[in-house]
Structures are given as structure tokens and as C-alpha cells.
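Let us practice reading a record.
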Amino acid sequence: MRVAGAGQVRGAAITRGSVARVGVATAISALCGYAVLYLAARDLDPAGFSVFGVFWGAFGLVGGAAYGLLQEATREVRSTGHVEVTEGPQTHPMRVGAGLGVVAATVMAVTAPLWAPHVFSESRALSVILLSAGLAGFCVHATLLGLHAGLGNWGQYGGLMVTDAVIRVVVAAATFLLGWGLLGFLWATVGGAVGWVLLLLVSPAARMAARVRTPRGTGTFLAGAAHSIAAAGASAILVMGFPVLLKATSGELGAAGGVVILAVTLTRAPLLVPLTAMQGNLIAHFVDHRGHRLKALIAPALVVLMLGAVGVLAAWLVGPWLIRVAFGAAYTPAGSLLAWLTAGAVAIALLTLTGAATVAAAQHRAYSIGWVGATAASAALLSLPLDLEQRTVIALLCGPVVGIAVHLAALARAGR
């Protein structure tokens, strides 16, 4: 292993400037996401929006699973002090990400007859094709994000996020203006998955990051990534893919389902979009504080709780009015529903924090068990004999508690 030259030291410290850069990129990405949802809701009726919402959630689910590659690449690069690996076992993360993307897309397409009829009620063939191709691209996207996070290239990290988001909103705006309807919004959902190609074409720093190798064998990298992908997939069900879980446990959603999906998406985005985007920062932070990770959890958890309390109050008081003004009278959720869904988003945000600390501690098994347990609990709660709104609130509030307990127990054992 050879030490890199000046300016190439891996793992630059987390600074206010780096957090600010990612924060700005996150804000832009969130606004673009809101813009896509706004355009879709204005262009489609609630029943049509529920179809779009399920596809949006499905891509969020598979893309969220691909974020396991981001987590493992970040941890591997951040835990090592050198850029250039010239001897011994080594892994080229970008090649691994590309290979996994192709394999995952192929498996998804081949198995589509088994699951697609239960998920997509319209444009089934196109949905499967777009979902498979989007997943392949997003695996490379997530790996490149992880390499940037490990290297401390926060400007490039944010640039890749923004490129993805801007491509989506451009396609959605064209769909709205040209009347492409539901199909156009399906294309908009996955359009950003090619953003990494554009960044590699224009950025020398991105090309340098793409060439980085990590100092362990590919099998070791894949073993860690497998746990991270399993956990990220489970987390994605709760964070982005919840409409898919709702559809799978409720059957036909209709107009009422469209209202609930929009409410869930809008109430969780202010907290969970930034946290998801800042996974690289969080994992790097917990790696840097490897001696006292439980203590390092306190400050970000307090920030989440304070922001969440403000969000719950705002959702209750002004949420229904904002949604009615922005999306039309067909979307009229109650203030109490919005407040409870926001509280559920806080629970998932705390689970995201404990998960980042757990994966930074290389507690891959506990990390995946925590997220899978939370998802299984939420799915079971969605089967309760209650109406759609009540089941949704209970599942989002109580399911994450299972995962938080698993993560905290693992971190306590690792500390001892």
C-alpha cells in the first residue's frame, strides 16, 4: 500500500463547510423532489397519483437498497488512511457497483412476472423496464457517492445529488407542459439515475474517485455490502418504498390511498430526505468518533427531536391548508393525521441515525437485523383490522422502535 500525494489524503475531517455544502445540495434536491410531486399531483387525479406514487416508492425502495453500496464504500474508504493501494488484496468499488447493478437489474426483470402484478396496476411492462434500468444506474450512482464521502469530496458529493434531482424535475416539467401524463412521470422518476455519467464526463475529481481501490478483497467488500444492502433495502421500505408496502397489504388503494400516500410523502420529506442525503456525513462522523459512538449520537438525535417537534406542530396547524392550496381540494388530509405522520417520520429519522452509527461500527449484522425487524413490525401492524389512516400511523410510529432498540444494544455491546 502506498501513501498518496498531497491533496489526496483520504478521510478529510467533517467540518461546518462540508456539512453546509451537503446541506445546500440536500435542500436543492428536496425542492426538486417536491416539484416533481407537485407537478404529478396537479396533472393527475388522486387515483392516477396513487399509481405514480407506488412507482415513485418502488424506485425509492430499490434505490434505497442500493444505498448500501454508498454506506460500505464510505466506511471502507474512510477507515483507511491511503488513496492508492498497490499490493495485497484490493477492491475496485466502482466495478463492484456496476456489476451488482447489472445482476440486480437482470434478476428484477426475470422475476417480474412473480411480483409486478401485485405492485403495478397500469403500464406494467414499462414500469418493470424503467425500474430495472434505473436500479442498474443507481447502483453506480450510490457507489460513487460513497467514494466521494469517504474521500471528503463533499462538493462533488453534493454535485452528484443535485444532478440527479435536476434531471428528474426537468423531465417532470416537460411532462406537465407537453401532456405526457402518467408515462412521463414514470420516466422522470428514474431519469436522474444517469447523473453519474454526466459528472464523470465533466469532473476530474469524480474520475479520480472512481479509480479508488480499497485495501481488502472483493469478497470481504461484498460480505459487508450484503448486510448494508439488506438493511438499506429494509430501511427503504419504510423511508421511500412505504407506498409499495401499503399497496401490498391493502390491495387497491384508489383515491383515498392517493391522499394518504401524498400525506406520508410530504410529512417525511423535510426530515428524511436530508438524513438520507447526509448518510456519508453521518457515517464519516461516527467513524471519526469510534471510541464513543453512543455519546456521538446525542447531538444529532436532539436536533432531530427538536426539528420534529416543530414539524408536528406545523403539520397540525397549517398542513391541511398548505396541501389544499398547493395540490387542490381533492387532497384534504386532516391536521391530526399530518401531525401523527410527522411523528412517525421522527421515529424513522432516529432509526436512521442509530443505523448510521451501527454500520460505522462495522456491526453489519445488528444493522441489518434492526432495519429488517423494524420493517417486519411495520408490515405486521399494517395488517391490523383498522382503517387505512390508523394502520399507517401505528405502523410508522411503532415499527421503528424495534430497530432502534436493536441498534442501541449493539452499540452498547461494542462500547464495552
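A brief commentary: Confidence is low (pLDDT under 50) at residues 1-11.
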